[in-house]
Design a protein that fits this description.
Elements lengths: L2 H13 L9 E5 L4 H11 L4 E5 L3 H12 L6 E3 L7 H15 L4 E3 L15 H28 L3 E6 L12 H21 L4 E8 L6 H4 L4 H9 L6 H12 L9 E4 L8
Parallel strand pairs: 1-2, 1-4, 2-3, 4-5, 5-6, 6-7
The structure holds NADP nicotinamide-adenine-dinucleotide phosphate.
NADP nicotinamide-adenine-dinucleotide phosphate (NAP) binds next to helix 2 and helix 7.
């Protein structure tokens, strides 16, 4: 066997070393429904222990009970708002108190809002900036030290196709997701040599409560959700599992996922 063949064999053996997620601990914000809940379900099936956060205690607890019905699944449900520093500090503290480690951080909580700039509601702008940007920063501020202390872990951000391509009426949402990408890339540079991988996923249209919460008009809903086949939250969860299961030397940083039918942003 030549040296070249030997090193190719070593390389392919390494490529087969998928990261085993069993026993890992994941913190997911915005896990009460939609993409966050789908990620929680997918990770629980791979033996990941879960700390879940969202504001509505009933929906969060209903998901946690459903997950706990499967043998061996361990779930903490900690209701709260990602804009509340005390909630985030408590979420991380209680997760560490229960399991002593955090391996996966998913700052997923987010919301949308569309309006032309000249007609926008400043209160909604502030809400978007606070949840989509400040909430993500708080989650990192308290969530990163445990990963760095163990020199291991993975952060998966939920950005959006809107971070790449904006549209009239979607400027403020796009701005929050551009901010997520900037934070993610800076974080990547800060921690990638410290054993922590960073990924930001940029979905196109995903059929969740997102469009209702954002208050989209019936015409826009029709265009996004009925005139084309949208992605499902499970499609995004599958991508998250794919990213997390890569061998330790492989870091998938940015993933743009559109529905096949989606032409513009
Ligand atoms: N759906 C899409 O088309 C799409 C496309 C690209 C990117 N994304 C991004 O994907 C992420 C998840 O969106 P989704 O589609 O799953 O939306 P969703 O179905 O509306 O779910 C949002 C989740 O976040 C929680 N949440 C909202 N505000 C919160 C806050 N202030 N504090 C804590 N939790 C909060 C909600 O629960 P509570 O209301 O109980 O708090 C819910 O569990 C977001 O960052 C979104 O921007 C979505």
């Amino acid at each position: 066997m030549s040296d070249g063949e030997a090193s190719a064999d070593v390389a392919s053996a390494r490529a087969d070393e998928r990261s085993d997620l069993r026993g890992k601990v994941a913190v997911i914000t915005g896990a009460g429904g939609g993409i966050g809940a789908a990620i929680a379900i997918a990770l629980s099936r791979r033996g990941v222990r879960l700390a879940l956060s969202a504001r509505r205690a009933e929906t969060l607890e209903a998901l946690a009970s459903r997950l706990r019905a499967d043998p061996g699944v361990e779930v903490l449900a900690l209701p709260g708002d990602v804009r509340d520093e005390l909630h985030i500090e408590g979420l991380i503290r209680e997760t560490l108190g229960r399991w002593g480690q955090i391996d996966v951080l998913v700052p997923n909580a987010g919301a949308g809002y569309r309006a032309p700039i000249a007609e926008g509601d400043p209160a909604r702008w502030k809400q978007l900036l606070d949840v989509n940007v400040y909430g993500v920063l708080l989650t990192l501020r308290y969530g990163m030290p445990p990963l760095l202390a163990r020199r291991s872990g993975h952060v998966v951000f939920l950005s959006s196709v809107a971070s790449r391509v904006t549209q009239a009426s979607n400027g403020v949402y796009s701005a929050t997701k551009c901010a997520v990408n900037a934070i993610a890339e800076a974080l990547r540079q800060e921690v990638t040599r410290e054993g922590v991988r960073v990924t930001w996923i940029e979905p196109g249209v995903v059929a969740t409560a997102f469009q209702d919460v954002a208050g989209y008009s019936p015409e826009l809903r029709q265009r996004l959700l009925e005139d084309q086949r949208p992605l499902t939250a499970d499609d995004i969860a599958r991508a998250v599992v794919f990213v997390l299961e890569q061998p330790a030397h492989v870091s998938i940083n940015e993933l743009l996922i559109r529905p096949s039918d989606q032409v513009s942003a």
